[in-house]
Amino acid sequence: MGQSLPKVALRPYLAQDTPMLAAIFAASIEGLTGDDYSETQQQAWAGAADDEEKFGKRLATALTLVATLEGSPVGFASLKGADHIDMLYVHPAAVGQGVAASLCDALEKLAKGRGARSLTVDASDNAAEFFARRGYEAMQRNTVSVSGEWLANTTMQKKLDDATRPGAPR
Ligand code: ACO
User: Fold this and answer.
1) Residue 3: which pLDDT band, with cuts at 50, 70 and 90?
2) Atom 3 of ligand 1, nearest CA residue
3) Burial class (CB in 10 A: 0-12, 13-18, 19+), 144
């Protein structure tokens, strides 16, 4: 008899989550992005969490949600303003269990609640297919400088303006 996967739960970010989320951020980049980015690019990217105070400010300034499996944080995502996904990271040990999908579902609802008609994301090359499957369309290719390394990503956009938007006719 097959075992069912543990259920993903979401909660708001708390300041004391910062070290754990910094560790998930680094592990996610190291473990999941090697097909698309070189080791030096990965190191530069993961270095964004080295200064935990700065990383914590980035999480706190956005609307950040923490995903847990059986009570343990395994991923997080953040909504910047009303209409931009700033971060989405899942620990390598927890991929393929719907963690990112749960986080994105919630951010898309929150964006609608903030009045956004569309949501953008600067998707890493390894995450672009994940977003495309959710209805995000590629708008623009970017190359960004991170600690002296150049990393490519793609700005993608999803229209949220459907019948489920608050205030829309049903
Ligand atoms: N490519 C193609 N399809 C994918 C990928 C992928 N890399 N990842 C997940 N999917 C599919 C799954 O198969 C699943 O499909 P299904 O519904 O048909 O079964 C669906 O997308 C949902 O998958 P989840 O299990 O919810 O995704 P997961 O929790 O494994 O996380 C993520 C995906 C976030 C891309 C993870 O691999 C990750 O953290 N990657 C490294 C960090 C990263 O690049 N983050 C994004 C940076 S851009 C930014 O932050 C805005």
Assistant:
1) low
2) 130
3) exposed
- Residue whose pair of structure tokens reads 């400010």 in the numeric block: 57
Round to whole Å and give the CA distance between 123 and 128: 5
SS3 17: helix
| Residue nearest (by alpha carbon) to ligand 1 atom 36 | 90
Q: How far away, in angstroms, is 25 Cα from ligand 1 center?
A: 14
Reading the block at residue 23, the tokens are 């560790």
Does pTM surpass 0.90?
yes
Do 103 and 88 meet the contact criterion of CB atoms below 8 Å apart? yes
pLDDT band of 117, cuts 50, 70, 90: very high
| Collapsed DSSP state (helix, strand, coil) of residue 133 | helix
